[in-house]
């Protein structure tokens, strides 16, 4: 109450003085848009905790199912799918993997263009039911061509979920609150989906009746697809809308949720960018850097996800059951590593040292997998590789969001990055070729070189952004990103 009275008195005083000394048009406009903090720190802390409780549970759940549904093809492959539909011949498996990314790349930007207009809870729920139905259909295929068609549709439906979720998170949290939260969102979903190989093994043991229902790989798709549909149908009750439409917030909480993002900056009322404005936003050179970072993360993440069970079985000599079981623990380690580094990044208010360190951890792990001899040591290397690669997926998204001042542009940045990440998925599904087994030397060294390139690019870009911050502090470039008071988070 005291803060409200103080703010009101300040405004009244300013108005009184303006009658004696009239303000220029620019000064009046700035005064009208400058954010005045009319809430207490305790009130803000309570609101952030309330947002945390509402935003993440269902987003994490849906994304976990999407990760499960796009990656379960590798589990089905070694459970008999390869033989029953002729998927093991030639490059059919790689084709089935990469067609997913056609729709995934094309639909990212359109999805983030409509999500705030239609509403997050209805749009994301529609997408979840859609990709659940596609996965369910995979349980009834009889040819590899049918699988390819369904995998293409799967890409279209899953495309909007990840960038939409990142857009929602970035709309609720401050610059140095997003790192650990995007990482938590990504890693909690990854943790849940990390048990996918174990679940797939259990489902593949099901035998029912005669004919196709005695083929265990079908039950992987049937059960996981059915569960996804159920989650999608109930998700409108739990998905949080964007701050201005959030039904779980009262009017004052909505005001604080939006205004606290712009303390000491001109207040921004959200405005839907037009198609022309969206394309103009894409011309920012920094989006190329953010997209390259996420491209490399995607190449590495998808390559390991799709080929890790195969590497464990053919490359390290483990049995089918043990290969499935051993696929999960590295993702538990990745979750701990990513959350720890994301928390540290927010704490020290720097992104580049953490991202570069994760790249070096990934490179170390891949080299161990390549050149160590004992299976146990190579498995440890796989742990490091998964930790380093997975940590930079959410870290690069946080990096991109933190260098973007305008709310409308954040959705464009997230969609652009993940669209390019889809191309990384195509590369990740093709660089590990069957003829390169069991070491997959070309794929391994491609991944290593890309990780080292991210180190160089991230460091150079961050030093440039740090210099721009210094120029802004000195008053030489006062309006970074066209927003007065904004500073990059390199």
UniProtKB/TrEMBL annotation:
<dbReference type="GO" id="GO:0022857">
    <property type="term" value="F:transmembrane transporter activity"/>
</dbReference>
<keyword id="KW-0812">Transmembrane</keyword>
<keyword id="KW-0813">Transport</keyword>
<keyword id="KW-0472">Membrane</keyword>
<feature type="transmembrane region" description="Helical">
    <location>
        <begin position="153"/>
        <end position="173"/>
    </location>
</feature>
<feature type="transmembrane region" description="Helical">
    <location>
        <begin position="185"/>
        <end position="206"/>
    </location>
</feature>
<feature type="transmembrane region" description="Helical">
    <location>
        <begin position="352"/>
        <end position="372"/>
    </location>
</feature>
<feature type="transmembrane region" description="Helical">
    <location>
        <begin position="218"/>
        <end position="239"/>
    </location>
</feature>
<dbReference type="InterPro" id="IPR036259">
    <property type="entry name" value="MFS_trans_sf"/>
</dbReference>
<protein>
    <recommendedName>
        <fullName>Major facilitator superfamily (MFS) profile domain-containing protein</fullName>
    </recommendedName>
</protein>
<feature type="transmembrane region" description="Helical">
    <location>
        <begin position="93"/>
        <end position="115"/>
    </location>
</feature>
<dbReference type="InterPro" id="IPR020846">
    <property type="entry name" value="MFS_dom"/>
</dbReference>
<feature type="transmembrane region" description="Helical">
    <location>
        <begin position="378"/>
        <end position="399"/>
    </location>
</feature>
<dbReference type="InterPro" id="IPR011701">
    <property type="entry name" value="MFS"/>
</dbReference>
<dbReference type="GO" id="GO:0016020">
    <property type="term" value="C:membrane"/>
</dbReference>
<feature type="transmembrane region" description="Helical">
    <location>
        <begin position="287"/>
        <end position="307"/>
    </location>
</feature>
<keyword id="KW-1133">Transmembrane helix</keyword>
<feature type="domain" description="Major facilitator superfamily (MFS) profile">
    <location>
        <begin position="55"/>
        <end position="470"/>
    </location>
</feature>
<feature type="transmembrane region" description="Helical">
    <location>
        <begin position="122"/>
        <end position="141"/>
    </location>
</feature>
<feature type="transmembrane region" description="Helical">
    <location>
        <begin position="444"/>
        <end position="461"/>
    </location>
</feature>
<feature type="transmembrane region" description="Helical">
    <location>
        <begin position="319"/>
        <end position="340"/>
    </location>
</feature>
<feature type="transmembrane region" description="Helical">
    <location>
        <begin position="55"/>
        <end position="81"/>
    </location>
</feature>
<dbReference type="Pfam" id="PF07690">
    <property type="entry name" value="MFS_1"/>
</dbReference>
<feature type="transmembrane region" description="Helical">
    <location>
        <begin position="411"/>
        <end position="432"/>
    </location>
</feature>
């Amino acid at each position: 109450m005291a803060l409200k009275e103080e703010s009101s008195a300040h405004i009244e005083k300013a108005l009184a003085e303006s009658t004696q000394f009239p303000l220029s048009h620019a000064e009046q406009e700035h005064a009208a848009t400058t954010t005045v903090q009319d809430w207490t720190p305790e009130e803000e802390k309570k609101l952030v905790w309330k947002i945390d409780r509402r935003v993440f549970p269902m987003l994490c759940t849906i994304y976990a199912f999407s990760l499960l549904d796009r990656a379960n093809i590798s589990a089905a492959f070694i459970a008999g799918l390869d033989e029953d539909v002729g998927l093991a011949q030639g490059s059919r498996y790689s084709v089935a993997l990469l067609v997913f990314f056609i729709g995934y790349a094309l639909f990212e930007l359109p999805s983030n263009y409509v999500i705030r207009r239609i509403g997050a809870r209805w749009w994301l729920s529609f997408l979840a039911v859609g990709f659940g139905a596609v996965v369910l259909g995979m349980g009834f295929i009889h040819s590899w061509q049918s699988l390819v068609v369904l995998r293409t549709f799967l890409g279209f439906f899953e495309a909007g979920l990840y960038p939409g979720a990142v857009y929602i998170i970035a709309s609720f949290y401050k610059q140095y609150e997003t790192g650990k939260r995007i990482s938590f969102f990504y890693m909690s979903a990854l943790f849940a989906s990390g048990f996918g190989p174990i679940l797939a093994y259990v489902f593949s043991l099901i035998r029912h009746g005669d004919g196709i229902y005695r083929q265990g790989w079908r039950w992987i798709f049937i059960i996981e697809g059915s569960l996804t549909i159920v989650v999608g149908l109930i998700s409108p009750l739990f998905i949080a809308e964007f701050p201005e439409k959030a039904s779980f917030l009262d009017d004052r909480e909505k005001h604080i949720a939006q205004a606290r993002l712009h303390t000491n900056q001109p207040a921004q009322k959200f405005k839907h960018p037009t198609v022309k404005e969206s394309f103009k936003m894409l011309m920012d050179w920094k989006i190329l850097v953010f997209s390259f970072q996420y491209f490399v993360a995607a190449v590495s993440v998808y390559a390991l996800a799709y080929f890790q069970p195969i590497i464990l079985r053919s490359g390290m000599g483990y049995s089918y059951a043990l290969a499935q079981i051993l696929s999960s623990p590295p993702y538990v380690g990745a979750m701990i590593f990513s959350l720890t580094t994301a928390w540290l990044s927010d704490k020290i208010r720097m992104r580049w040292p953490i991202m570069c360190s994760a790249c070096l951890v990934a490179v170390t792990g891949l080299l161990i997998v390549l050149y160590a001899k004992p299976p146990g040591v190579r498995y440890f290397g796989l742990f490091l590789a998964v930790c380093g690669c997975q940590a930079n997926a959410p870290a690069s998204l946080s990096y991109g969001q933190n260098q973007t001042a305008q709310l409308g542009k954040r959705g464009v940045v997230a969609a652009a990055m993940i669209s390019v990440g889809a191309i990384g998925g195509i590369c990740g599904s093709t660089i590990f070729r069957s003829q390169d087994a069991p070491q997959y030397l070309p794929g391994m060294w491609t991944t290593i070189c890309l990780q080292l390139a991210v180190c160089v690019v991230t460091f150079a870009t961050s030093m440039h952004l740090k210099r721009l911050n210094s120029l802004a502090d000195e008053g030489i470039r006062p309006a970074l990103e066209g927003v007065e008071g904004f500073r990059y988070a390199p």
